Amino acid sequence: QGSKLEIPLWLAKGLHDSKRRIISVELPKIYKEAWRTVFSADANVVDLHKMGPYYYGFGSQLLNFDNPENPEIAQTILQTFISRFRRIMDSSQNAYDEDTSVLVARLDELERALFRAGQKGLNDFQCWEKGQASQITASSLVQNYGKRKFTDMDG
């Protein structure tokens, strides 16, 4: 009793039981109040990859544990994402044919995926604009939506 251990999240989730109190979870420093203050001042200056490459995903998993700071943590995660999103998408759209390693070095893995999606969209548009794209195709979401609508009408 009273020992502090670093254990994987999956194990902490398995051991956590609000009735039996087998373990209590201490917040990693990046989710504590001091860092939340930094994020609220300017989230764009934080190197999320260095602090934890899965900041958003891990933070949302922390909300499963009983912690009185959960509402503040959730709000900080959301506001951080909102404030960083525009810069990420602007960077992805304005970095055509250049080395982007410096731009993505400070990003969380979710942000990196968004950056890559933005880059792919820009590259696809540039190819289409130059006439290098063979054909514009409907996205799979649109195709599935149309199929679902027709099957709904049949039933």
From TrEMBL:
SUPFAM superfamilies xrefs: GINS helical bundle-like (SSF158573)
Superkingdom as given in the UniProt entry: Eukaryota
Gene3D superfamilies in the record: 1.20.58.2050
GO BP annotations listed: mitotic DNA replication initiation
Domain GINS subunit residue range list: 32-128
Entries under InterPro entries matching the protein: GINS_A (IPR021151), GINS_bundle-like_dom_sf (IPR036224), GINS_Psf3 (IPR010492), GINS_Psf3_sf (IPR038437)
Entry's Gene Ontology cellular component terms: GINS complex
Main location: nucleus
Location in the cell: Nucleus
Keywords: DNA replication, Nucleus
Coiled-coil segments: none
Family: Belongs to the GINS3/PSF3 family.
Functional summary from the UniProt entry: Required for correct functioning of the GINS complex, a complex that plays an essential role in the initiation of DNA replication, and progression of DNA replication forks. GINS complex is a core component of CDC45-MCM-GINS (CMG) helicase, the molecular machine that unwinds template DNA during replication, and around which the replisome is built. The GINS complex plays an essential role in the initiation of DNA replication.
Assembly behavior: Component of the GINS complex.
Name of protein: DNA replication complex GINS protein PSF3
This protein's encoding gene: Gins3
